[in-house]
Amino acid sequence: MQRQAARATPHIGPTGMATVNLTIQSVMASIHPEHIAEVTFADCNDTTVDAVKGSSAIFVALKPGVAFEPGIGSYVLDAGASLSNDVNPPREDGAVSAVDVAFRSRVLGVFDEATGDPIAGAEVADSTSGTFALTTSTGTVSLVFLPTGVSTVRIRKTGYAELRLPITISPRDTMPVTLLLTPIK
Fold it and tell me: Which helix (H) or strand (E) holds 111?
């Protein structure tokens, strides 16, 4: 019975992607979503890609100031480093470049604890400066307004309990932050 079931159910891989081989799945899993500028898939019928093995391929373009190394994954370069394909390398006049701010675009998502729905219009504020931004209809906000280092962030929305937590903005801390707000009963 188990052998028949195994033949009847094709292997879909550990992430549920039936047509993407495990090597590509492991590479894609090592790229932080916030480091991706564009993803393009060329299926087997796509003849627009003029490259060897250009069909049934996934092309990932990283944001300026982001690098990728096999076995390590994607990461934000130090402020002084640049890649040969960067469109905005560090500027000599001291102006802020894309490399300097690439890691500053950390994303925070706010969701209802009871329903899991995104919460639009939640105020996400830096407790020190009072600078704030409101979450979008997807419940997300970019934390670009926070200074580099650790800041205490205050999240509040009418009908929900206020939340305060430390958030670190640095080249090593780029993962999105997901928060659940508890409805007040």
Answer: strand 107-112
